[in-house]
């Protein structure tokens, strides 16, 4: 995730900015949390790429009712579900869906929230007020409630759930970016660019935002973990992925009916979610520690 | 009807069911709307407790220890659904009816054999002691039971009946059973205990429909308050309801009939099936309806359990809906090919855990109207391929959406299984889970669907069943099936001189839809209740209208 | 800025935001597809009946009129009548609210009661196996959805051990023992992630406090370790913990919706969710707005508490 953001924005970075990020990357190697998080994420990405090559979706959907609720065995390492489908294949295919949900919804949220927050912080005044008050209103609802309502409005599909979560997380990106943009705007190089008569949009996108990248990466990493949890919740309520999609949230929904007969139907998708969320949480946390070694931080909560 | 929101489950046990269908054959008993035929027209009130009525006593069943009825105690009922609008005339939900049935009485009584009766000692006794119907079916004169008190202490008179019927007939009330009075010109009070209904046109099902609980009698001028505080003449009076959580009924001391034996009934809303079962096993509840499908086999007939159960079939009948007005399902060959793709037994196993059986006809298994010459098509992918080939469309030219409601989780499971069958046949189908409200508005009301599935309850009566579901202008023909041949067969059956003449016509209608495959018939599903071993009168709790529970004759051994 | 002025400013902001929230709620609900009239009548409604019902329910009026009607009513305490249940929305909410409040309060209490001792142990015995175990528990706590924990609790405690009922609600005013028995599992599930966050936060802020100068001073003054931790450090570490709670309120409230669903718990979240499923517009509006009001008020209370404890906040002037 971090790597993607770095290379993706490399074109707009000058040497100074690039050096800062390289420094960040170096210190990741010395931070256990960030390193473990990164390792987990990379491992999951590999699984997401490899498992669809080894297991066809058709095989994962293959039913065998006679073999339903089979406990974990050599043949079915994660057991089988109420249709006799192999939970191992389904759980592995779930990796890709989970990453897709987390990354896409955060991409949506940040692509709207970051420019908005940057604008608010950079422009200040009435623009700032207008944007941030709107964000306040959006944040006056618990995120899952809004996501639930939006998904119910536009129809329950996985992509709609992603869209809803993307919308819900916009204010969080706007907030982080704004406060970062305010401090960056006061730095010399921004003032210099303004003095040189650069257009505001140039200053905002070329000078301010790239220098606010690191906290945004942190926010993104942590938001991905929240989004994955929230999407699982939506699927659990029937508002996300549709059967027979091997989505972890949906698997948990199905497992709920058969908890006593087949607890493994819940355990393995649960482990999947845990690993993914943990990876992004650790990574985000680690980076924050690196950026601000003195700050008192835990899991995305800053002691301001 | 289809759902939790309307008439709902056919709570008939097997023993009672046999009698019910036998009689349905004999008398063409119609408890549903719009039925145009299939029965004799003038029902004489019966007042016998003989033979047919096995429901009057509290300890009838062979499975229960006969014993002295004990009075007292509170029965805690783990109820499967949330009760809704408490106005008995407005409420469209089976869940509310299931709860209010012990509070209200209708004018016309109904035995467990679905026979109209004035006998007070039947499953669903009525408030009329006699009625006279003119030969032209234009005037109905009812004599009321005397000494009946409402829960508010007032005495039942003809004014209350007139008020109730006028209220239901008034379109502004939004009464579900308004259609019953569609041909009613006036309701007149002749004296305190005599009511006359004048009809503007002949409407043969009228008398039977006055046995619907939706036409129950409420006190005069209570329309504004009965939604909050139901007041009826039944064995239990309403105490309180905390919506979505629990409600209480209390024995009504001045009840006009026999019973009630219990002091109180406490309803606890427990929509999660597993919680209901765990709850009764741990002693939190005395009775639950709907045992979770995957647990039925463990619970029913398990001698070690401290529970007794009743299982009956069918509770409901389910079918695959194909939109007959749009490609590819406007082609009968394509529809029949889909039928050949589906292994119905596998569906019953996979989605219902075996608690049901495949059926080719929606008529109840022992109904005289059922066409026993047709049977479910066996899964045959070769035949399916031939038929797809023969149809005007290619099997792989569509990406179909299968809209299924989460209101019935086993429907989602069934759709998931069928999706695999379709994929094997090369047909691309994607599932979309819909909330019940969305299903109703998209599939049922706006016909915005290609593939779907739903189940119907209480369709024991052929005229109503075959008219509403498959005639071109049938009120439940949301799939848009249109066949002149079928319409004619059903019309002829409705106009037939008698039952014997109607039987072959309804059977022909079944053959036509079996060949045309407007829908794929899937299954009959079993119904269940479970109670603790100290609960008696379990055979009396299921109302003859196949939907509701009446606790008036239940009792508990408290020793 | 004085505390009072800060408080007033915050309340004014709250009112403004709530007004915006009411517009959003109403707008969202009124673009919901699905016709409540069809829903109410189920499969029994004819086209005319649906039309009559729509008329009765006022569904045929323009949206802005309906909004004004609604908001005028809300200001007078009348949130309209539930289309589905026929009861006043305010009554339904009033019935459900205590259940949810009880659940949220229990979750918070459980979380704090478990987490703070764990955090203290981890901090005082930093880098021991106890600390390590606490970290593992905390990370596991935040990495799984609360409904997963709910399922685990149902399975282990309700099904296998049969210790507590798996669902339902009993009012604490009715039977306190039974009320706690019913609320423990959902509150536990709901409190898991909160617990994890508070544990970690307590640990790290306590470690920091323990390192700081005045603790050394206290030690020199001869105070016992136990007293130092409890009296000084813990009080100073309270602020970050309060932050976590404030930050986690959104998740707590969001979690309630799913947890109430899982445990068939008759609270506000379940009411809102079912209203959504039923397209019961007045009830969705009422319950969603109520949740927003409670959510924002709780946020405000946390912020004000924060300001009372730490005067720097009001000086900063951040709204």
UniProtKB/TrEMBL annotation, chain A:
Residue spans crossing the bilayer: 34-55, 97-123, 144-170, 216-241, 262-283
InterPro entries given in the database record: BP-dependent_transpt_permease, MetI-like, MetI-like_sf, OppC_N
GO cellular component: plasma membrane
Keyword Cytoplasm in annotation: no
SUPFAM superfamilies: MetI-like
Gene Ontology BP term (one): transmembrane transport
Pfam family, one: BPD_transp_1
Presence of the UniProt keyword Membrane in the record: yes
Keywords annotated in UniProt: Cell membrane, Membrane, Transmembrane, Transmembrane helix, Transport
Subcellular locations according to the entry: Cell membrane
Membrane topology note: Multi-pass membrane protein
Origin superkingdom: Archaea
Domain ABC transmembrane type-1: 95-284
Chief location category: membrane
Family: Belongs to the binding-protein-dependent transport system permease family.
UniProt-recorded name of the protein: ABC transporter permease subunit
Organism: Halobaculum saliterrae
Taxonomic path: Archaea, Methanobacteriati, Methanobacteriota, Stenosarchaea group, Halobacteria
TrEMBL record, chain B:
Organism: Halobaculum saliterrae
Chain segments annotated as transmembrane: none
Gene Ontology molecular-function annotations: peptide transmembrane transporter activity
PROSITE patterns: TAT
InterPro entries found in the cross-reference section: Peptide/Ni-bd, SBP_5, SBP_5_dom, TAT_signal
An individual GO BP term: peptide transport
GO cellular component: ATP-binding cassette (ABC) transporter complex; periplasmic space
Disordered, as annotated region: 34-67
Recorded family membership: Belongs to the bacterial solute-binding protein 5 family.
Protein name (database record): ABC transporter substrate-binding protein
Coiled-coil residue spans: none
SUPFAM superfamilies to which the protein is assigned, alphabetical: Periplasmic binding protein-like II (SSF53850)
Gene3D superfamilies per the UniProt record, alphabetical: Dipeptide-binding Protein, Domain 1, Dipeptide-binding Protein, Domain 3, Periplasmic binding protein-like II
Keywords: Signal, Transport
From TrEMBL, chain C:
One Gene Ontology cellular component annotation held by this UniProt entry: plasma membrane
Alphabetically ordered keywords of this record: Cell membrane, Membrane, Transmembrane, Transmembrane helix, Transport
InterPro entries xref list: BPD_transp_1_N, MetI-like, MetI-like_sf
Transmembrane regions: 12-32, 101-124, 136-159, 179-198, 237-263, 283-309
Any Pfam family the entry gives: BPD_transp_1_N
Membrane topology of the entry: Multi-pass membrane protein
Residue span(s) of domain ABC transmembrane type-1: 97-306
Highest taxon in the source lineage: Archaea
GO biological process: transmembrane transport
Gene3D superfamilies (alphabetical): MetI-like
Localization of this protein: Cell membrane
Family, similarity comment: Belongs to the binding-protein-dependent transport system permease family.
Protein name (record): ABC transporter permease subunit
């Amino acid at each position: 995730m971090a790597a993607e953001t770095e290379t993706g924005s490399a074109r707009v970075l000058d040497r100074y900015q690039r050096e800062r990020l390289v420094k960040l990357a170096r210190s990741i190697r010395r931070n256990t949390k960030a390193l473990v998080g990164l390792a987990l994420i990379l491992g999951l990405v590999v699984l997401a790429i490899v498992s669809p090559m080894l297991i066809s979706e058709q095989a994962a959907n293959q039913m065998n009712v006679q073999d339903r609720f089979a406990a974990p065995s050599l043949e079915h390492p994660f057991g089988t579900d109420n249709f006799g489908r192999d939970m191992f294949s389904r759980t592995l295919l779930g990796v890709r869906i989970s990453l897709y949900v987390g990354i896409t919804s955060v991409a949506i949220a940040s692509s709207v929230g970051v420019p908005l927050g940057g604008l608010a912080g950079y422009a200040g005044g009435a623009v700032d007020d207008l944007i941030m008050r709107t964000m306040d209103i959006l944040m006056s609802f618990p995120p899952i409630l809004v996501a639930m309502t939006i998904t119910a409005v536009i129809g329950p599909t996985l992509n709609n759930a992603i869209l809803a979560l993307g919308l819900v997380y916009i204010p969080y990106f706007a907030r982080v970016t704004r406060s970062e943009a305010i401090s960056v705007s006061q730095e010399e190089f921004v003032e210099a660019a303004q003095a040189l008569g650069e257009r505001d949009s140039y200053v905002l996108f070329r000078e301010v935002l790239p220098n606010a990248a690191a906290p945004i990466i942190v926010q993104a990493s942590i938001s991905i973990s929240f989004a994955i949890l929230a999407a699982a919740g939506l699927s659990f309520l029937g508002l996300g992925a549709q059967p027979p999609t091997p989505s972890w949230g949906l698997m948990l929904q199905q497992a709920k009916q058969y908890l006593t007969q087949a607890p493994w139907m819940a355990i393995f998708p649960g482990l999947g979610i845990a690993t993914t969320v943990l990876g992004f949480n650790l990574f985000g946390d680690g980076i924050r520690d690196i950026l601000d070694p003195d700050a008192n931080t835990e899991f995305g909560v800053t002691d301001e | 009807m289809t759902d939790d929101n309307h008439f709902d489950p056919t709570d008939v046990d097997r023993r009672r069911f046999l009698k019910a269908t036998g009689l349905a054959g004999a008398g063409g008993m119609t408890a549903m709307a719009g039925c145009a035929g299939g029965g004799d027209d003038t029902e004489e009130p019966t007042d016998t407790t003989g033979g047919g009525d096995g429901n009057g006593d509290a300890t009838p069943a062979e499975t229960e220890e006969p014993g002295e009825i004990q009075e007292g105690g509170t029965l805690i009922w783990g109820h499967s659904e949330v009760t809704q609008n408490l106005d008995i005339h407005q409420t469209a939900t089976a869940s509310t009816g299931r709860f209010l049935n012990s509070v209200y009485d209708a004018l016309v009584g109904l035995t467990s054999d679905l026979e109209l009766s004035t006998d007070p000692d039947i499953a669903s006794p009525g408030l009329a002691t006699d009625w006279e119907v003119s030969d032209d079916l234009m005037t109905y004169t009812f004599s009321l039971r005397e000494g009946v008190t409402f829960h508010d202490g007032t005495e039942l008179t003809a004014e209350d009946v007139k008020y109730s019927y006028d209220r239901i007939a008034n379109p502004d009330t939004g009464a579900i059973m308004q259609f019953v009075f569609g041909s009613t010109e006036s309701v007149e009070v002749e004296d305190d205990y005599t009511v006359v209904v004048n009809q503007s046109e002949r409407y043969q099902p009228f008398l039977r429909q006055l046995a619907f609980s939706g036409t129950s009698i409420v006190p005069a001028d209570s329309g504004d308050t009965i939604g909050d505080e139901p007041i009826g003449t039944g064995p239990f009076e309403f105490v309180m309801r905390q919506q979505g959580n629990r409600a209480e009924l209390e024995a009504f001391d001045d009840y006009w009939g026999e019973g009630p034996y219990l002091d109180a009934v406490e309803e606890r809303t427990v929509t999660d099936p597993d919680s209901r079962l765990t709850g009764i096993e741990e002693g939190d509840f005395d009775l639950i309806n709907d045992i979770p499908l995957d647990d039925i086999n463990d619970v029913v007939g398990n001698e070690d359990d401290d529970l007794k159960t009743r299982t009956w079939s069918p509770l409901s009948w389910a079918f695959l809906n194909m939109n007959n007005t749009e490609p590819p399902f406007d082609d009968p060959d394509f529809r029949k090919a889909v039928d050949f793709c589906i292994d119905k037994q596998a569906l019953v196993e996979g989605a219902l855990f075996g608690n049901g059986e495949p059926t080719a006809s929606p008529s109840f298994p022992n109904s005289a109207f059922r066409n026993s010459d047709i049977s479910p098509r066996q899964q045959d992918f070769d035949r399916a391929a031939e038929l797809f080939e023969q149809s005007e469309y290619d099997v792989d030219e569509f990406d179909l959406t299968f809209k299924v409601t989460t209101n019935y989780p086993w429907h989602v499971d069934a759709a998931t299984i069928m999706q695999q069958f379709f994929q094997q046949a090369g047909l691309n189908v994607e599932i979309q889970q819909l909330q019940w409200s969305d299903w109703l508005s998209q599939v049922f009301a706006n016909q915005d669907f290609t593939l779907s599935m739903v189940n119907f309850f209480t369709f024991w009566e052929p005229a109503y069943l075959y008219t509403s579901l498959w005639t071109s202008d049938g009120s439940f023909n949301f799939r848009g099936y249109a066949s002149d041949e079928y319409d004619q067969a059903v019309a002829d059956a409705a106009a037939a001189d008698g039952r014997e003449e109607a039987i072959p016509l309804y059977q022909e209608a079944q053959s036509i839809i079996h060949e045309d495959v407007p829908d794929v018939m899937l299954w009959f599903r079993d119904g269940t209740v479970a109670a603790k071993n100290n609960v008696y009168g379990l055979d009396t709790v299921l109302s003859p209208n196949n939907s509701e529970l009446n606790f008036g004759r239940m009792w508990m051994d408290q020793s | 800025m004085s505390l009072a002025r800060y408080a007033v400013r915050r309340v004014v902001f709250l009112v403004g935001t709530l007004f915006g929230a009411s517009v959003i709620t109403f707008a969202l609900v009124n673009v919901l597809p699905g016709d409540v009239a069809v829903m109410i009548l189920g499969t029994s409604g004819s086209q005319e009946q649906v039309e009559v019902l729509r008329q009765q329910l006022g569904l045929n009026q323009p949206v802005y009129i309906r909004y004004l009607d609604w908001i005028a009513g809300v200001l007078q305490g009348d949130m309209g009548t539930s289309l589905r249940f026929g009861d006043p929305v305010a009554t339904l909410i009033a019935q459900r609210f205590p259940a949810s409040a009880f659940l949220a309060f229990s979750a918070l209490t459980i979380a704090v009661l478990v987490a703070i001792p764990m955090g203290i142990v981890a901090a005082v015995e930093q880098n021991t196996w106890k600390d390590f175990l606490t970290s593992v528990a905390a990370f596991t706590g935040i990495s799984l959805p609360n409904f997963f924990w709910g399922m685990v609790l149902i399975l282990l405690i309700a099904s296998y051990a049969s210790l507590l009922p798996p669902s339902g609600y009993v009012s604490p005013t009715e039977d306190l023992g039974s009320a706690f028995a019913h609320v423990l599992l959902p509150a536990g599930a709901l409190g898991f992630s909160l617990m994890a966050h508070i544990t970690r936060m307590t640990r790290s802020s306590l470690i920091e406090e323990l390192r700081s100068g005045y603790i050394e001073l206290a030690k020199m003054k001869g105070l016992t370790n136990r007293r130092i931790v409890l009296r000084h450090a813990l009080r100073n570490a309270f602020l970050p913990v309060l932050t976590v709670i404030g930050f986690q309120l959104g998740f707590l409230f969001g979690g309630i919706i799913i947890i109430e669903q899982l445990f068939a718990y008759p609270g506000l979240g379940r009411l809102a969710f079912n209203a959504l499923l039923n397209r019961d517009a007045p009830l969705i509006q009422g319950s969603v707005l109520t949740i927003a009001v409670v959510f924002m008020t709780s946020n405000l209370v946390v912020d004000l508490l924060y300001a009372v404890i730490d005067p720097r906040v009001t000086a900063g002037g951040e709204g």
